Amino acid sequence: MNNSDTIIALSTPSGSGAIGVIRLSGPEAITLTNAVFAGKNLEEQASHTLHFGLIKDGDQIVDEVVAGLFVAPKSYTKEHVVEISCHGSSYIIQQIINLLISKGARAAKPGEFTLRAFLNGAFDLSQAEAVADLIASNSKASHDVAMQQMRGGFANELKALREQLIHFASMIELELDFGEEDVEFANRDQLRSLVTKINHVLHRLISSFEMGNVIKNGVPIVIAGKPNVGKSTLLNALLNEERAIVSDIAGTTRDTIEDELTIGGIVFRFIDTAGIRDTADIIEALGVERTLEKMKQAKLIIYMADAAQSFAEVEEQISGLEQAQIPYLILVNKAEMLSPEQRAAFGQLNVVFISAKDKIGIDELKETLLEQVNLHHINTSETLVTNIRHVEALKHTESALNRVLANVDNPVTSDFLAMDIKQALHYLGEITGTVTTDDLLENIFTKFCIGNRRSK
Q: What is the pLDDT, as a whole number, of residue 254?
C-alpha cells in the first residue's frame, strides 16, 4: 500500500445537492489545493481552519469554495487533509476532481481514507469497521452500538485479554529456552484460571452476536398466512403507504416484498409473502416455496388469519410452527367481522385483533412486536458483536483456548501449550488488525465508500 501519494475523492453522496465535499489526503494535499486556490496561501494557514476562495483552472473560475485544512497528524487519516466544500453540481465536482488529479493527486480507492487512518494508527481494525457500521446505521440502537465500538469499547476488551495471554505466552517461551533444566515459569493453576476467565468473556461476546446482528441489520419479520387474509394490506398499514398490491384475487402476491420500519428505535424488516396454499400455478408455487424459506430465516413470524377461517384451521397451522420451533405472533384480521363466539375462541391463542384496512390495532401490534423481540430494553453501552468476521475469530480463539485447558491437565510439553496460546493470540489479533493480510484489508475497506466511487 503506497501512502506516499495524495488521494482525492468525493466524500458526500453522488448526485446533485446544495454542496459537495471533496476530500484530499496525503503529503501534498495542501500544496496541490493551494496550486488551484485563489485566496489566502493555504500552506501558511493553521490546522482546523476554513478559508473562502476560488478554484481556478488557469484564468477560468471553476467555483467559489470553502477549503478546510487539517494539518498532519491532526486529521482523520493522520496525514495532511483538505476538504473542499463546493456547489453540488455534478459538473463542478468532476471539474475540481479532474483538475486536482492533473496536478498530481490520484483517485482514491473505495475505503482508502479509512484504510489510511487504520494503517497510520488512528484506530484498530474493529474500530475502522465500526465507522462503516456508523455510516450505515438507520436506527438509534444500531447507531449506539456502532458508536460504542468506534470509541473502542470492543477493542479495549480484546486488548485486555491479549495482554494477559501474551504474559503467559512469554513465560512458556522462557520455559522452552530452559527446556533441558525442567524449569516451570508459567504457573499452570494461574494459566487454567486465566483461560477459564477469558473463555467466559468469549462466550458472552459470541452469544451477543445474535442480538448485535439483529440490531445492525434489522429484525426479519415474515408476514405469512393463507391467500387473501390481508397480508399485503397489513404491510401497507404498517408502512403507511401503498407498498404492496392489494386485490381480492387469491395469489396476487407471488414473490416476497420487503420493506423496513423503525419502531421504538429498532429496525424491523417486514417481509410480505405469497399466501400458503396448494396451487397448480407454477409462478405462484415458486412464491409459496420462497415463503417457506423466508419463514425459516425469520426472527418472528406474524401468522395472519381472518374471520373466514375456523379456530381449528388456525390451530392446525400454529401447531406446524410450534413443531418447527419458529417464534410466531398470531394476528386475526377483519376483527370487525368476528362473531362473539369466534372472538372468544381465538382469544384462547393469545392473538392480536386488528383491522388492517381501517388501521385498527396497528399501534397495539407495534407494541407487541417490541415485546416479542425484547430488544427495546437492551443496554447498547455494553459490547455487542455485530460482525460475522469477529464472531468467527472469537470462536477460533475459544477453540484454541479449550485446547490449552485440555493440555494443562495432561502431561504435554510446553511447546504444545505455547502453540495453542499463539493460535488464540493470532485470532484475537485478526479482529483488531494486529494480524492482517492484504486480502483481508481489501475485503473490509472496499465495503466502505459513499462518494469516492464517483471519482474513479
A: 39
Tell me which residue of 131, 94, 85, 110 sits closest to 15, measured CA to CA.
94
Residues in Cβ contact with 437 at an 8 Å cutoff, skipping those fewer than 6 apart: none
Q: Are 242 and 236 in contact (CB under 8 A)?
A: yes
What is the rounded distance in angstroms from the CA atom of residue 139 to the CA atom of residue 146? 11
pLDDT for 179 equals: 55
CB count, 10 Å around CB of 140? 15
pLDDT at residue number 114: 92
| CB of 82 closer than 8 Å to CB of 29 | yes
Where do we find the cell 491532526?
Answer: 74
pLDDT for residue 43: 97
Q: What angle do CA 219, 381, 364 make, to 5 degrees?
A: 40
Three-class SS state of 258 = strand
pLDDT given for residue 185 in this prediction: 56
Buried/exposed code over 263-282 (b: 16+ C-beta within 10 A; e: otherwise): bbbbbbbbbbbbbbeebeee
Rounded CA-CA distance 72/295 in Å is: 52
**Can you tell me the distance from the alpha carbon of 60 to that of 40, in angstroms, rounded to the nearest whole number?**
18
Q: Distance between CA 294 and CA 418 in Å, rounded?
A: 46
Q: Say which residue the cell 508459567 belongs to.
A: 186
- Distance from chain centroid for Cα 351: 33
Angle in degrees, 0-180, between the axes of helices 388-408 and 209-217, rounded to the nearest 10:
170
Residue 274 contacts residue 256 (beta carbons within 8 Å): yes
d(CA 176, CA 303): 63
Burial of 44 (C-beta count, 10 Å sphere; 0-12/13-18/19+) = exposed
Pairing of strands 60-70, 352-353: unpaired
The sign of the torsion formed by the CA atoms of 415, 421, 423, 429 equals negative
Can you give the pLDDT at residue 244?
A: 45
Give residue 284's pLDDT: 38
Interatomic CA distance for residues 449 and 9, integer angstroms: 10
| Residue ranges of the chain with per-residue pLDDT less than 50 | 244-255, 275-288, 450-456
